[in-house]
Queue: 3 jobs
Job 1
Amino acid sequence: MTTAKGKAKSTPISHTFFGAPPAPGDEVLERYSRPVRILHWVNAITWIVLFITGLFFFVPQFGGAASGGVSGLLHRIAAVIMVGWVVIYFLGSPKAALRGIGEAFKWGIDDIKWLQAAPSYYFFGDEKSMPPQEHMNTGQKLWWLTVLGAGGLMIVTGALMWFFKDIISADAFLWSAFFHDVGFIALLSFAFLHVYLSAFHPKMRGIFWSMWRGTVSARYAESHHKKWYDKVKKGS
Amino acid sequence: MADKAILYDATKCTACRGCQVACKQWNDLHGVKTTNRGTYENPPDLSWDTWIKMEFREVGNNGDLRWLFTRRSCMHCTEAACVEVCPTKALYHHELGFVAYDKEKCSGCGYCVEACPFDVPRSGSGAITGIRTMNKCTLCQDRVTNDLTPACVKTCPTGALQYGDREALLLEGKARVASLGGNATLYGEEELGGLHVLYVLDDSPDVYGLPLDPKVPATSTVWQDVLQPIGWGVAGLAALGLGFNYVIAKRKIKIESEGK
């Protein structure tokens, strides 16, 4: 324990918290472009604002925090920034955006194998039966599908309750609120998983930095995204 | 404390609308400019500034035209959908039985506006900010908690409106219905656990535009009774599963790196 403590002193606290990024000499591959990274962090920050202000409405015990409507206003501002930034990103790089969305829908036999092998990998570090993966692995595709599906649900139901409140029937409004809550539960639980697997899982330490710097070590790319790694290597 | 209530006797009402004026005066609500729509009924609807409104109905019955009046305002339900859905607990049951609210707490979400089976609460302006605070009849909380009758009751010249203990008014309403005979009914005794505005009507409630079987919308109970526990369950399981994974994976990974 004492050696671990001594080591932590010489490394930045962010490395201790999120794991160490690739060392300066390591070979790295570009994984996330700058627009994608900005999109990710705008999303992350607005998501947290939406999550907290939404929680005030969802949990009766926290309801007092929504008094006066300030949290509701923040919720709307964050929603506009989040959706607005997605639109800006899409208009800025439509091809990359469509390619990115498309990744979630490309499924093959290796995705089935991945799902079968994942538990023993994520619990016991057993890498042998993990099939080679594309730029996005099966788990990331599932997360991506959740974000697209539940995110779309949130936008539609949220817009109904905000802009069309006076037009839609009372039942349509109440069901919108209901499905907004359903989307909230889905996103919340998958977001736990996303944050854990991309920053804190023992096998994934340091991967957090790929969304910060845009690069991953070649070693990681080869072991986790073999098909993508091969394509990049062939291209370069 | 014993529940209080208002008893409205439609057969004694002349639709003078004095109650509408008294309500606006006491509660300092603005008058609304309206246009003549060919009826004495005015303003056209309840609003943020109009908490009580008399409705006029012309009901034909075998060539015998009847002009029926109804009082439209908050019913102060015992099983109140608005209280159920209010996220900030701005709406609550007062110890005297009526549905009170704390304006400071209202977030303007508008859930109560949509959930109310009588379509009573009204949102204010602010569609863009979303802060559309709600307004509705308070049963003159500031008056009744100081031993005064509500403004509408106080001003009623014909005795069509009374205020008092709910039990006593129920007895009085039943006696009145019995003496009226025919189709006369008392509305509000059992509806939604008992309303705190009771109606003596000369006909079936639906003739007066009142719902025969008002209900709390299913969605408003599903939210708290079903979705809440599911939300906690799913989030809890996710957190627990990840913690479990961390403990196991951490040990395994350590062993691996030691072996290297």
Job 2
Amino acid sequence: MSTRFDQSTTTTCGYCGVGCRLEAHRVDGSVRSISPAMDGPANKGHTCVKGRFAHQFARSRDRLTAPLVRENDGFRLASWDEAIGRITEAFNKIKAEHGPDAIAGLASSRGTNEDCYAMQRLMRAAVGTHNIDNCSRVCHSPTSFAMRSSLGLSGATGSFDDFEAADVALLVGVNPTQGHPVVGARIKQAAINGLKLITADPRRIELSDYGELHLPMRPGTNAALLNGLAHVVIRDGMVDSAFVDARTEGFDATAELVEAYTPDAVEGITGIPAADIERAAHLYGEAENACISWGLGVTEHLYGSEVVQLICNLALMTGNIARPGAALLPLRGQNNVQGSSDHAALPDTWTDYRPVTDDAVTSSFEERWGVKLKRERGMTIPEMFDAAVEGSLKAMYIFGEDVAQTDPDTAHVEKALDSLDFLVCQDIFDTETSKHADVILPASSFLEKTGTFTNAERRLQMVTPAADPPGSAKTDLEIICMVSKALGHDMGYESSADVMDEVAEMTPRYAGISHDRIGRTGLQWPVAKDGTDTPILYTERFEREGGLARFAALPYKPPGDAADDEFPLILVTGRRLEHYNAGTMTRRTENLSLLPSDTLEVNPVDAERIGVKAGEEVTVRSRVGEIRLPADVTERIEPGHVFTAFHFPEVRTNLLVGQSADVNTSCPEYKVVAVSVESVRSPGERPQPAELVTA
Amino acid sequence: MKVTVDAVEVEVEEGTTMLEAARAAGRYVPTLCFDERMAPFGACRVCMVGVEGNDAPLASCTTPCSDGQQIHTDDETARRIATATVELVLSELPAEPEEHTELAEVARALEVGEPRWQGVQHEPKHDARHPYLAFQHELCISCGRCVRACDEVQGAFALTATGRGFHSNVTAGLDSGFTDSTCVTCGACADTCPTDAITEHLLLDLVGDPAKDGGPQ
């Protein structure tokens, strides 16, 4: 076949957790076009506006191409030797004066498994602390916690193929056509071809238009809805008793608890009509094979991890698990949210979520690396910021995360960053966070590195470089290894394949994983030593002691924030199709001309009350901050709620989000923020606290 | 069940099309309107094959196999129909298709030379309003692949077949261009287009971008 390209490389998309396989086409040394790989197991020859088109960022003129060090009030270019010299000097001094736990690192859910594993090894072995975390803390840590607690393992029980094999799918707090567009397209096609879809979301999402039933719950009332569905399933005899008896424990306590969650009671809490709750329970409960999928609309709440356990309850009581078409499929946000956590970039666990408190496991790493390690967990991201403000954390090494834009309570995050004695940022662009750095290291995008990403199906897929990092920028793995060696711990990796070999050697459930075996179509963990992977989990037993899954009897509790007279509306935040998270990449592409700015979605009823028309500027005020943006008047959002995204630094949505977080995992409660919205032109316009509205 | 394609015997499942059987047997059948991501359409008549016991050739992409069938991909009548069809398609284009396109590939495989018929050719009509996607309407051969990709792969329902006969073409929205349609910029249409009637500006830049010079605005 004749071609216009110098070279085409098959790799894995670096945007969301779907894990599309892509062909990256190179001309004159840079990637000029991307098309879908026909044999990609998750995308099957399809892509989206991000994966296919938003690659210009990689060639952007403002890529970081050389290390930068702080000098006076600004930065100047530096050699790698000087930049790394500054890091080792500062880290060694802080270690000597305050101990290794005064230093913390963040790995990135954007990086490869190999990058993340090396990053945690850097913090644990070279620095000597378990203070390592990654951005899955602020998105799917509740999913991970809950699935481990209910079922045993931290991952989807099946694959996206299950949507096509299912009769019914329940989507809770997830908007796939915007957040995970290729899976969104697959679900939409499945719905057109007969899949009965139930959507539960405060907003009427696009897939609701293709579904049987839409359940618009009040933000923060997911637990009541799920207990209500369980109530009807039990009351109307839809329980799979044989499955419950043979493979689970704790059903009776759950059955007893949900007795009080009658459809009428649940309507009172959630605002969903009782008849719709009955109908949804029957659709799900009577299906031959049913899937449940959820996203951050479930996890980013005060009781997010509990709601994921309630989702597991529903699947367990109907036996809708461990078969094709019967699966639990959390849609993971970033390309490697799954893998960064699988690969030990967490303060409390080793690879495969084995706790650092487990002496045998920690000893095995001590032996492998020739170092001494603590048996107590390190700090999570929110704890790191608190410790920095309070003064006990002195330095941070942040790789591939813009915490000053994406983490909640921006003012608190910035105060934390300013309180540090020393901050290293490793990124591909200047970010809101790197403004506070002492050393900035220029890294590589997913188009420029080798390694693996693990998608939302637990599938490890190869990332293969299609271009070189710009200027003197280096791959993340190279940089981490260099810093580690300078700190006196030579990891000895010659390639990213070596890193994965070490992971396989140290991790029984990943024993058969290697770059060679991953090949073109990937491997879904667990992978046995002989290379056999596991597309469907729990076909024989659950991975808990005794092999049984566990019901969790958990009541509904109100969210951390609630509307009141001063803040009468509830703000929900989320993604938009054209942009990706902090927008660092997509805002540097033509996607910006497709969606140049953000808006606040307001229901017409509220818009009239506030006195604002579509397109007019409004002020959104919460208990902790205030922002301004134009209003979009739409019936997609229910009265009483407003919605916006968090892609634009000029809006800085996260100034509004407070410190409330999931009880088990400290994942922030991004999805329920009480706000007041006022037209900037209204007569009683309140004066703005200017220091909070930084453009 | 078993079928034989050009003397190669293959075991196929009930419902397998003749095109799938031919590909399973490792035989080449040219196609224009077929894309494995979508349901078979049977519009282009280029995938014709001969079947023993059948007087006329059949469109292999839409015809299911039956047990014991003898299929010939090199059937003379089938090839003649396919070649003439491609020749007619080419005769309507103002220029030869770009070498990398599927249409050019099929024309090479069928050894279609300069078209024997010199009829009316499409006038260039370009639309460069979208930041990524470009229309070159004169290259549209009405295979329907873009419309079906938009419907059956993405589900955006942004594209529509328009016009009749020689004036058949494709349009986004109510002839409003991609940006003002329900298009979600997934690129499935550009990916499947066998002629570059829908393509990307970035790719046209590699060969000089006529769409950018001659847009309607």
Job 3
Amino acid sequence: MTAGVVTAVLLFAIAALALIVRRDLVFKLVALGLVNGSTVLLLVSLPRGIGSRPPIAAGAIPPTAADPFPQAYVLAAIVINFAVLALALVFVMMLVERYHTTDARRLEALIREEREAADAEGEDA
Amino acid sequence: MIAALIPLLHLLTSALCGVSGRMARWVAAASWAGSAGLIGLLATKVVAAGEVRYTLGGWPNRWGIELVADEPAIALLALLGLLHGCVYAFEWAGRREASFYVLLQVLVGAAAALTVSHDLFNIYVLLELMTLTSYLLVGFERRPAQLWASLKYLLLASFGMGLFLVGGAVVYEHAGTMNLGELAAVIRAAGDPPWVRLAGALLLTGVGVKSGIFVLSLWLPTAHASAPLAISALLSGVVVKMSVLEILRLAAIFPLAPAIWVLGAITGVLGAVYALFERDIKRMLAYHTLSQIGYALLALAGGSPAAAIAAVAYLVAHGLFKALLFLGTGLAARHVGSAHIGRLVAARDALPRTAVLALFVGTLGIIGWPPLDGFWAKELIGACCDSMATRVMLTVLALGTAASFAKLLPLFGVHRRESDECERGTANRGEMVAIGVLIAGVLFFGWSTPWWISGLRLSAAKLMLDAGRAVLIAGAGWLTYALLKKRWVALPRAIFSTEEGVLAVLLVFLGVWLAIGGGA
Amino acid sequence: MRPIDRLRIAAGALASAGFAAVLLLSIGRGEAGGETAEVIRLTATGAANRVASIVLDIRLYDTLFELFAFSVAVLGVRRFLRRTAGPAVEESLVESHVVRRAAYVLLPPMLVLGAYLACFGHLSPGGGFGGGAVAATGVLLVSVALGADLLAQRFRDERLERLEAVVLVVLLIIALIPAAWSRPLLANLLPPGQPGSLLSAGTIPIYSVLIALKVFAGAWAVVHFFVRHRGEV
């Protein structure tokens, strides 16, 4: 078991804990980024994929070269993670602009109040 | 090859929609027509040959991406095509913005690709793409409640997909391939090493977040209830189903049956209980989706290929009547201003006839009233399930369903008092077409399902008996609701925040791992 | 709510620890089989960079969807921030003259580096995504150091949007063309050429360049909207 794998798993667990414990929305996004980063680290440091040299050469490549497949997966994963973070950030920006807080619990309370007010108004009307 | 063409066509036309600005609707409609034709072609091939396989680029299966169109895939693809068309019809008059159609095309394309995908990493990419597009579509109208609901959805879904990718890494490490067929062979040959259980638990939990399993999908009620109408219908009707299809594929490879049974039971019961005590109809429908997914999972846990097909038939039936219910509710709510049942009943004279009809047929469908498609789907499941525990569970769930939907009964009363002040609302042509098609689906789809499972014999006597049983259950459900109405319970909602969601995902992962024999 | 919070933190810590433990105990170590030789043989499509031949040839299908994921993100940023973002913030975040001058000087080399990575992606590490990202980072550097104003004048949103969509259409058509000659979809039809030379590996460098264009345009739009309309809490 390589150091990379151990680090990746521990990072994933820590980032998940951060997602659970911290209330600040931006911090949650950072934690999500860390979750995704640790998955990427896991893919790259898989013992199967590690080799003596990169799989890039015009001529012959020795069989001990690194496995190019996990690297291809990592490429896709990174692009997708970027997309997720960007879009999450967009919604966070819009919500923060409206409610002026990044605290998840306060946001939940504010939005629920609004919804209940709208419902109650509808009930009376 | 056609299987690959369908999603690629959707992608191509979504890019074209992006360029075409105001003509986007027409490009999208043309694309729908094209893809419907392709789906039909593919269906004929699958029906003839049982299964159609294709590897892109001609590479060997182990390394390339393989597409497999089998019966479940083509059933869901047909449902997708139908709902796709209905959404367009429904939104035709109202939405002209190009980005709506671009997003829809990409969503449908990804879903279509998922039905036939047979490669773990491809599944990962497609699930993430579906998450992103449905996230944007839920928040499309930019109302704060929608934004918040979909943000929670995105965080949870991404976390779940992170788990999925970790599972994929474990699989690659040990099996050297991401192809499901090759993976199945490797697992069969490997005996029972710990990595199989680990990977199975990771993959199942990851997909489960998106598929409507109660504890994992705490985002679903708020997201589906806050989304724009047609999007709720599409989400409930299709997106969730695709993830369940992936569970089906995983279940064929990993020994996941006990976990699926437990998850199905919990989801079914909790979803039904929450639906029972919920007065906002859109939210009730969303909780109900959870419960119905539980139903399908219970069927799936049976293990046999016939059970899998029965589960898929149920998913298709559910897609039809749930979409019908969402569209009907949406129409009604639009005229009244809220989806609360009290207000809807009070204003029942003013509701558009289309909406009331949609709700009526949808309710009958969902409680399994014979001979609509819900009844037939439940028949199929009943015929494939042998365990007593499952049968009991399914009956309890059916009861719960009937009880929750008893709330809607006052809407359908026939009354002669037509007051002059309230005018009946009307639906526009597109909406009527969409609802009409779905009603036809709910009424007639069921009759075709017994032919899906070869070797299934349903005698007329059994059918009569089960029809009677279904009516009885419906009646019992209505009675239960009448009794419970006096004792209203306000259930805790505080579990729907993101933190608890992530915690739930981790705990469910551990639970699933233990359930499939992890620590042994 | 304190006891609930404590309970949540405790449960979270337990769950995370349990997760890490389960993973570390069960993850095991696969056998490095003899397949590496087969992989090497398989990926010899003329591209010296075997990862490029996987991303843009063997698993091109995945790459297409992932590119669309990126496009959807850009679309989301555009559509949602175009109207509702806060007022445009023009000042830069940086006071030091050295940094500002350096940013100004670094932009052209970064753009060139991005183009190089894209064009030579099949011969050395790099590729379309990396190239586009590097070029976009140059834009980000200038936007942050010198204020979003400088490049915003050159930023024609509609044109970029159109460019992106056209690139996608062209990409998909190239991918679909083999079907017309009854070859498998997404196959690489152009000649593999001499591995190591610029014009090798069939359609791979074409895809690389197109993807780099798309990623650059998209990331520029994202940077523009995020930096310019950053808003405040």
